[in-house]
Amino acid sequence: MNLLGRSIVGASDAPLNGTVFHAFNPVDGARLEPAFSAATPQESDSAVRLAADAFSAFSRIPGRERAVLLRSIAAGLERNAENLVSRAMLETALPKARLEGEVLRTSNQLKLFAEVLEEGSWVGARIDRADPNRKPAPKPDIRSMLRPLGPVVVFGASNFPLAFSVAGGDTASALAAGNPVIVKAHPAHPGVSELAARVIQQSVRECGLPEGVFSLLFDNGTQAGVALVRHSLVKAVGFTGSHAAGRALMDIAASRPDPIPFFGELGSTNPVFILPGALRERWEALASGLHGSFTLGAGQFCTKPGMVFVPEAPQAGSFAAELRRLTSASPQFHLLTAGIRKAYSSATAQRAAHQGIQSKAEYTVAHPKETQERQNGDGHDRGNDEQGFSVQAMFFETDIETFLKNSDFAAEVFGPATLLVHRASGKAALEIAEKLEGHLTATIHGTEEDLKENAALVAALEAKAGRLIFNGFPTGVEVCHAMVHGGPYPATTDGRSTSVGSQAIFRFTRPVCYQGFPEQSLPPELQDTNPLSILRMIDGKTTREAIK
Amino acid sequence: MNLLGRSIVGASDAPLNGTVFHAFNPVDGARLEPAFSAATPQESDSAVRLAADAFSAFSRIPGRERAVLLRSIAAGLERNAENLVSRAMLETALPKARLEGEVLRTSNQLKLFAEVLEEGSWVGARIDRADPNRKPAPKPDIRSMLRPLGPVVVFGASNFPLAFSVAGGDTASALAAGNPVIVKAHPAHPGVSELAARVIQQSVRECGLPEGVFSLLFDNGTQAGVALVRHSLVKAVGFTGSHAAGRALMDIAASRPDPIPFFGELGSTNPVFILPGALRERWEALASGLHGSFTLGAGQFCTKPGMVFVPEAPQAGSFAAELRRLTSASPQFHLLTAGIRKAYSSATAQRAAHQGIQSKAEYTVAHPKETQERQNGDGHDRGNDEQGFSVQAMFFETDIETFLKNSDFAAEVFGPATLLVHRASGKAALEIAEKLEGHLTATIHGTEEDLKENAALVAALEAKAGRLIFNGFPTGVEVCHAMVHGGPYPATTDGRSTSVGSQAIFRFTRPVCYQGFPEQSLPPELQDTNPLSILRMIDGKTTREAIK
Prior knowledge:
Radius of gyration of chain A: 25 Å
CATH class of the largest domain in chain A: Alpha Beta
Largest interface: A-B, 82 and 83 residues
Helix content of chain A: 25-40%
Low-confidence stretches of chain A: 369-385
Largest sheet of chain A: 6 strands, parallel
Strand content of chain A: 15-25%
Oligomer: homodimer
Strand order of the largest sheet of chain A: 16-17-13-12-18-19
Structural class of chain A: alpha/beta
CATH architecture of the largest domain in chain A: 3-Layer(aba) Sandwich
Distance between the termini of chain A: 57 Å
Number of strands of chain A: 22
């Protein structure tokens, strides 16, 4: 594993002339080699210019050829899985099995988009044929399809070093649609970012594509990212990260002389509503499932269930006690960065000290003692904490009245913590649902009887989330055609889209129509003969037939 | 025709307690009765609250029932066509035949969306079936479809008192998708706005729908519009109008605590490229067609061709001379408002006086003398101009060198004026195309040979416009399934959408997915039995078949 620590600008490696930074091992806080050189403004500019140069050619090659690129990247990731996983383990402390799964998820994502391109109908071709005899005016021939936007900037996420990072979903969907991509690597895992980027760079070269199709820029500050979002040749942005960073970048995108689409996934508390029948029938399984879900990946999933509403019922106490027991018995977790650990410690300490939680004798804050002791530790993002970025899981309890009075209880706490809200069913649950901000997911546990009785709750939640889950847990986002990983603001900056699943390709496209063009000057997707045999809407009817 | 001059808040008429304003007759500048009462902040707030209350019910009724509403509105408009046309003639001075056509266009738009709802497949239903035996983890059942956003605010346009106004495309598409609508009427034609709104109000009542499905607010200032875009319960905005107003509202939408989608159509200069073969073969027909297109509707179309590029060729002089002749022979035109006339007079005077046009002896500014004399006239938006809002058509000429040096030559001049740019072919045309900002349309006139030789020009234009036209004129926007009336900023605020044609429905929707829900709790579109017989993507394959 030979890491250069240099940004990748098209086919070239950037010189080592930026300020340098390192990754840290979350287990012991140790600095990892090599040093990574932050991209200079000139390097960011060059990457965008190369991307803009590549756009015309890349956007016009047949979808099947872009599929070849995606499959080549997928194969490259699988070939390099061992290197990717070992470096990712060092940089993230995520378990080996999880990271091995993430490599496969990442390559499968690329293959899913390749399939979409090979099938070809995703462009949504529509043809309205001419009618020269129509009165009062002849009807022109109009044909439309989706076309790519131009250079897309992707910000890698901290919590998925592969699947939401350099070769992750945003990159895969942007490339699939025909957009060159410039990735700003997340500074917490630059090594695995470089390894993935080398795979893409090699695939671009082997496919004979213009070098500007892909670049990777390093930076552990904000300079490179801001410059990219401001760059006049950048046409869209994909981002996964914190609300503060995402909103700042979104505001920059919106205040450009020419605003551009900004697809940011900013986080979510993912409410879970447990209805009376479910609590009665399977409180023990629910407690165990919920504990598994909120501690999975050290609670660093955007779909982590962060607030759980239970009705007043005899089993509510047992359910809470079981969650308390499981939380106290949880192993130590390592968070991704010193900054995340600091934020987690501070948010959980604040919550533990909160009047609305502490004042109720019957509610317990479940966490081992040592967590408290560590809360005043260093925590600056320097990685010099001898014990690494370790924390304990925490479980908080409150009741509906207190919850409704404290809007901060609905805020996301990134890490292995959750909040149980007692006496929250029926009208109270509905009131909560109606007051919710946007979330990525909303979950309901119930019997089918419960579900019928709570139709209004389901309707209210539908307006607040991109994915509704019945009798499941929100962690684990299936990569498939129907997945919606999105949701109203502030879960995402554009609730009209998904960042996971094949529908993610639509973000980086725009419809274009061609009026009166001769057959041979139209894209194949819109030619009479339908050479790609795709599904098209012809005069309002969807068919694979050619026009005769 | 009994006009009340009062805003319509759901089923109620607002009291006459706001400040009042009047429409003016563009022909003579005369004030038209009655007075219209501007909506108070309380009325705006009530309209939004009623819309939010109506959302849950309206968003859940079957699409076929929303189609009944749209067909009822269409029938109501047709029944009231005579009243609508006579009031619109008074308020806009547009010709009777054009307005009669616009009523039909408006009702046909509503019927097109009704057809889309009746067919039902527009929701893009996708189903990925569960696989409980999948390793390493079971695959859940995931089903997604498009759902409406919530209350939508629509700003009526000045230049289409019907088709882009109260019952126009934005309203039709927003209602079709299941969103309640609050229209802010354009103050230039409040009378025809009220008449159209009464039709919608009556249809909502007759269909037994919640009153909040539709409201109409009057205001000749900015207060009501700004309050609506800021309102926390408003979830999206449709706007057609000037760049200044559109950008201001867009910035408000983007700077909300929860930013919302803002679909603004802000204007466009609609470049026309005439290639050598076409100029040689049919310069006379091109001149006549172009003159018809840039003066149609007094040049007040967002698709008016405002800059025309011709190659250096023997016929270029004859083509320009013919355009000069036709322009000088044009009748007087009445612009919609005193403000539009003032802006037109000022922009054309500035252009006529421009060094780059005046300094070339061989280029002529074609306009009758009287236009010049009227340029210093009053023009404040008070309508007290004795001669109404009349202007003359104008035709400017310059050459490629001058054009490239003066970026203001590419700006839109709203009204019957255009700019011919000489010696603009081959590399020069390509350079222009690459430098263009976003436009609604880009037109190419050529032989098929021309088209093949200029493939790079077509490719460059495709990145700059929503609609490419070959051998046609951009005015006249066909309402059909394949139409794209959109384009990159600044043509619109969201180049990823269209405001005309059935694809406009997608603007006011978001995808939602349901994981693990039992059949009877799913929307009909996602049930196994496919009770609506719509096209769905099941495990990646598109079919109308039920799941067995």
